[in-house]
Design a protein that fits this description.
Elements lengths: L3 E5 L5 E7 H7 L4 E9 L4 E6 L10 E2 L2 E4 L6 H13 L6 E8 L6 E10 L12 E7 L1 H10 L4 H17 L1
Length: 169
């Protein structure tokens, strides 16, 4: 069964129209997606390889963890749910910023969150979602982005995330 999402406008306002995510993607309708950048206490960033069983971008690498916001879910609620489902992490990620992402399967609002994982070894990925994961320094991540095959939205999300973090320092 396909996920149900709410259409939103170009100002990220909910339009009150519920559609399947598949239809939103096919029609290019804006909807919400929540992702989280996971850091450990040493500042390393979690990178993972998507399982070959996932429907979207199987086998590609990804920096963010997340998915579509379900009907009635806030960005934060969706991000927390996805963290638990994909990595076994129970945490409330902090929303950093949103933007219209044009680089995925279709345009969508992307809510980028951050969470600091106090115990990097406590990450227990769902094998149906995640084939491999590791913690990379920012320098290692920048190198990997040039060499590995990442999901389409990873490059823009990481670029905006690192810019945001630099501006906050």
């Amino acid at each position: 069964m396909d996920e149900l999402v709410e259409r939103v406008d170009d100002q990220d306002r909910v339009l009150g129209v519920v559609v399947s995510r598949r239809q939103a993607v096919q029609e290019g309708w804006l909807h919400r997606v929540a992702v989280t950048m996971c850091r450990d206490e040493r500042g390393r960033i979690l990178v993972h390889q998507r399982s070959e069983q996932v429907s979207r971008f199987p086998g590609l690498y990804e920096v963010e963890v997340g998915g579509a916001a379900n009907v009635g879910e806030s960005y934060e609620q969706a991000a927390a749910r996805e963290l638990t489902e994909e990595l076994g992490i129970r945490a409330l990620p902090r929303l950093l910023f949103t933007f219209i992402n044009q680089s995925g399967l279709s345009p969508h609002w992307l809510g980028v969150h951050e969470v600091v994982v106090p115990d990097a070894d406590a990450v227990v990925p769902d094998p149906d979602e995640v084939a491999w994961h590791s913690w990379l320094t920012e320098l290692e991540l920048r190198s990997a982005l040039l060499e590995w095959c990442f999901t389409p939205d990873s490059h823009e999300a990481v670029s905006r995330y690192l810019t945001f973090r630099t501006a906050q320092s």
